[in-house]
Structures are given as C-alpha cells and as structure tokens.
Amino acid sequence: MSSPKKIIRKVGVGLIGFPLLVVGAILVPLPGPGLLVMFIALVLLSNEFEWAGKYADSIKAKLKAIYAKSMAKAQSLERSADKSED
Predict the structure, then answer these.
(1) Pick from 57, 53, 17: nearest CA to 38
(2) How far from 69 is each of 35, 56, 63, 75, CA to CA, in Å?
(3) In sequence order, what DSSP letters do the residues of 22-61 get, joined into one string?
(4) What angle separates helix 4-27 from helix 34-45, to the nearest 10 degrees?
(5) Per-residue pLDDT, 70
(6) CA dist 3 to 8, 10, 38, 48, 57, Å?
(7) What is the pLDDT of residue 72?
(8) How many domains does the chain divide into?
(9) Cα–Cα distance measured from residue 10 to residue 34, given in angstroms and rounded to the nearest whole number
(10) Residues lower than pLDDT 50 in the chain
C-alpha cells in the first residue's frame, strides 16, 4: 500500500496538472502558448502518471526532429546567402 505522502503528492500533481492540460487544450485554437502549456502539464503529470510520460517523450522526440530540421534549413539558407554575396 502507498504511504499517505505518496497519495497526497499524486492528488496534488493531478489537481495542478489536469486543469493545466485542459487550459492548454483550450488555448490551442486561440492565440497563445497552448501547445507549450499542454507540454508543461504533461511533463508535470509524468512525475506521477506513466501514461503522461509516454506522451511527453513522444512530443519531445517530435520537437527535437522539428528543431533539427529547422536548424538544417537555416544553415542551408545561410550558405546560399553567403554564396550570393560573393
């Protein structure tokens, strides 16, 4: 059986994380950082809930891929700009 501290912590994380996740979902179509809020909520929830950790890891992998692709594109644009200056 879990200790009372673990149960209180799990409830506390849930009371903060789930509303934050809902607010993030509401903000997605509106101007604002909806996806960022949802990601933060998932990271918070992943401390206590395994399913949230799986989603957070999936999102992290996708964000890393997007970042790598954008950096490669930026470097390509820089090289082409340098060539046109010569």
Answers:
(1) 17
(2) 19, 20, 10, 10
(3) HHHHHHSSSSS-HHHHHHHHHHHHTTT-HHHHHHHHHHHH
(4) 170
(5) 93
(6) 9, 11, 29, 14, 28
(7) 93
(8) 1
(9) 24
(10) none
The pLDDT value recorded for residue 55 is 86
Query: Which residue bears the tokens 């950790």?
Result: 53
Q: Which two tokens stand for residue 13?
A: 């994380």
Note the pTM of the prediction, 2 decimals.
Answer: 0.68
Helix axis angle for 50-85 and 34-45, nearest 10°, is 140
Which pLDDT belongs to residue 47?
87
CB hemisphere CA count around 16 (13 angstroms): 14
Domain with 15 in it: 4-85
pLDDT of residue 1: 56
